[in-house]
Design brief:
Layout: H1 2-17, E1 22-29, E2 34-41, E3 46-48, E4 63-66, E5 72-80, E6 84-88, E7 93-98, E8 101-110, E9 114-126, E10 131-143
Antiparallel strand pairs: 1-2, 2-8, 3-7, 3-9, 4-9, 5-8, 6-7, 9-10
């Protein structure tokens, strides 16, 4: 019986520390020369925007960091879809976030026909009882040959 309870405890421990409430699908759109970051957000969770009303207070904004490359240039900053903005009692400020799903976009200027876009998405997701600061490493291969 002890081993059964130990197994249950271990399972609960692993599940609680392996939560990933945001699933990312990151791809390159050759027609529009942009990297597309699609986020699928678990129900009852919020993913915070890139541009938040109070960046020095409250939840961490979503940040896309790109590895330096000589084969492409970043054009402008990351574009975000319109977030939900409202007062959050827990943080005591207005916050900007998404529910269910959203997308972010980064325009690039290709300087070669084949290259790799790599980096990391740093983000915070919260539900009604906890917040998680997470990161998603990404690598997207681009082959623009006709």
């Amino acid at each position: 019986m002890k081993s059964f309870y130990l197994f249950i405890y271990f399972f609960i421990y692993i599940v609680s520390f392996s939560q990933v409430p945001v699933k990312w699908n990151i791809k390159y759109s050759p027609e529009k020369n942009k990297v597309v970051f699609n986020a699928l957000i678990d129900s009852n969770w919020h993913l915070y925007a890139v541009d938040v009303p109070n960046p020095d207070e409250g939840p961490l904004p979503t940040i896309m960091e790109f590895e330096k490359q000589k084969n492409y240039l970043l054009k402008g900053k990351v574009f975000q879809e319109k977030p939900i903005t409202k007062y959050d009692k827990g943080f005591g400020i207005n916050v900007a976030y998404y529910e269910n799903q959203t997308s972010f976009y980064q325009k690039i200027k290709p300087l070669a026909s084949s290259f790799e876009i790599a980096g990391v998405v740093k983000y915070m997701a919260c539900d009604h009882s906890q917040c998680l600061a997470l990161a998603k490493v990404f690598r997207v291969k681009v082959n623009r040959q006709d």
